[in-house]
Design a protein that fits this description.
This is DUF3168 domain-containing protein. By secondary structure, the protein is of the alpha+beta class. It has 3 helices and 5 strands. About 20% of the residues are buried.
Length: about 140
């Protein structure tokens, strides 16, 4: 099992999302770690959990990952529009790269809630990717 494939998956996600002109124009940034004091809205690529998804004929990984959106709008409209835009970009084909084959990508859930300050809306999108790391 090669866990370095997670770095390739994260890099593919970042390149795809930051490379979309419409999404990049609506966000202050797309981050692994959000710098202090960033203006809203923004997106962070969250934690990943991984388990074996191998068979007799290949070595594979099942990866659950979260994408986090934050918005200063008290209503749901902005965060839902951003989530819909992100979701529309994510397909297994566009995440492929040298050393990484994405066999499938499945949407698991989307939820929104307020941060404890009651002013910032937080949205979480969870996906399951089944990947076959390259040599």
């Amino acid at each position: 099992m090669t866990l370095t494939a997670l770095n390739l998956l994260q890099a593919s996600l970042h390149e795809l999302l930051s490379g979309n002109v419409e999404l990049a124009g609506r966000l202050s940034g797309i981050f692994d770690h959000v710098p202090e004091g960033m203006s809203l809205p923004y997106l962070a690529i969250g934690d990943m959990s991984v388990r074996d998804w191998s068979s007799k004929s290949f070595t594979g990984l099942e990866v659950l990952f979260d994408l986090h959106l934050w918005s200063g709008h008290r209503g749901n409209l902005e965060i839902r529009e951003l989530a819909d835009l992100v979701h529309g970009l994510l397909t297994p084909e566009v995440l492929q790269r040298d050393g990484l084959q994405v066999a499938s990508l499945q949407f698991i859930f989307f939820e929104t809630f307020f941060e404890t300050d009651g002013r910032i809306r937080h949205g979480v999108m969870r996906y399951r990717a089944r990947i076959i790391p390259g040599e």
